[in-house]
Amino acid sequence: MDKSWMKAPRWSVEYDEGLRNFIELALSTLAQQNKILCPCGICGNNYWLEARDIRDHLISVGFMDGYTSWILHGEGTWSSVPNVSSSSQSEEGHAEGDVMDQMLMEGFGMYDAGALGVDEECEDELDVDAEAYYKLVSDGSQQLYPCCKRFSKLQFLVRLLHLKNLWGISNGCFDDLLSLIKEALPEGELLPKNFHEAKKFVKAIGIGYKCIDACINDCILFRKEYANAKFCPVCKSSRWKSVKGGVDGRRVHRVPAKAVHHFPLKKRLQRLFMSSKTACDMRWHSEGRTKDGLLQHPADSSVWKNFDATHLEFSSEVRNVRLGLATDGFNPFGNMNVSYSIWPIILIPYNVPPWVCMKQSNFILSVFIPGKKGPGKDIDVYMQLTIDDLLELWNDGVMTYDVSSSKKFCLRAALLWTNLELILTGNMTACRDFFEIDESYKPWVLKSASKERL
């Protein structure tokens, strides 16, 4: 659509005609209950209003600065994104940001309840995620500062946070650096004030984690029936940190003696189908693999074939995920004389091509176990979190939007392999509480989690 009318005087006939076409486009594509997001300079795409109210706002106030790509109002392409193939070498540096913008645009369709025919039971869950996601995509379409042609707000901020993590920049240094950049940019820049606000901004993507208190001696996790417990029912140790002295130890603050980080699996698997590229990769094992009888991919193995033959309902949907599980400890401080270790539990989807499968970007962190020593045979206590996710995905699945087909499907997952480290760090009895060995082809098959150990 021609957007030259946006620069015309707001009292002119040209502006009124263009505004009418804009509202009709939004109502015909992304309206919810006859309301659309208001893109005026005051509302900033944060409020759902009726067409007549939005018309009044846009005539009296005008559009918000930088909103030239109407991705929240039915426009199917990013007009502000340059054509990378025809760009000069000096513009190749922001191709990564363009890819990220494309992923956001494709993933935005996941929250269009009207287009997807979402069931009433799922509408509430979509609305919760959609509100934060609408805000994220809205900010992503804004220019970093007025007349900025190279970066959007989202592009610049994500690239800046990536550099912080890559080079280990402290939070204080990042705050000072952000303040310096804000001073250097022209008036009207849209950067957040500090690292805390920057984290809140990108958190709207929806990939967060849960912090769960654990017994200092690795006996239990304070969840479910123990969610409100103050002492471990096994070893009687306090849930909270305390100092020596006083009666039974004086509690300093309600700070857990040990905490584990859990990264829910469902949303991470759903994100694999938000981009058209990764969504196609998740079908590669069935559609892109050369089936010549040679062992070139895990799908060529007898384990995979036997599993498909046994579970026909699961294998009939090629987008269902086959996972491998791995765990190992490492010292985050390198060779420094610090007695501290971290044990991550990692899941690896094997649907993708072999040249993608073992890349770090394909690893899915499930549980993060900190501590002065490894959990040893008590790692099964922390495995509860991963097992609950896997059982839910195996039994019930999760409704997922596939951007490559523009349709929803029920995504399920199965665990086919795990590494030997899990067996060596624990014992066979503990492992058999959760896994069983089928001697015919030796995959690790997840059993029921209804165990006394849990």
Quick overview of this protein structure:
The chain has 17 helices and 14 strands.
Shape: globular
Give the beta-strand count.
Answer: 14
User: Which stretches are poorly predicted, pLDDT < 50 over at least 5 residues?
Assistant: 77-97, 109-124, 420-454
Helical content, roughly? Answer: 25-40%
Query: What order do the strands of the largest sheet run in, or round the barrel if closed?
Result: 3-6-9-8-7-12
Provide the β-strand percentage band: 15-25%
Count, helices: 17
Q: How many domains is the backbone divided into? A: 4
**Helix-strand makeup class:** alpha+beta
- Average pLDDT level: 75
- Major beta-sheet overview: 6 strands, mixed
User: Whole-number radius of gyration?
Assistant: 26 Å
Question: Distance between termini?
Answer: 59 Å
Report on the structure:
- The chain has helices at 13-29, 51-60, 95-108, 113-116, 120-140, 153-167, 171-184, 195-202, 265-271, 276-281, 284-287, 302-310, 312-315, 354-357, 379-395, 421-425, 428-432; strands at 36-37, 48-49, 210-213, 240-243, 250-256, 259-262, 321-327, 341-349, 364-371, 398-402, 407-411, 413-418, 435-437, 444-446.
- It is an alpha+beta fold and 454 residues long.
- A hairpin with a 6-residue loop joins strand 4 and strand 5.
- Helix 1 runs antiparallel to helix 2 and helix 3 (95-108) runs antiparallel to helix 5.
- The longest helix is centred in the N-terminal third of the chain and has 21 residues, at 120-140.
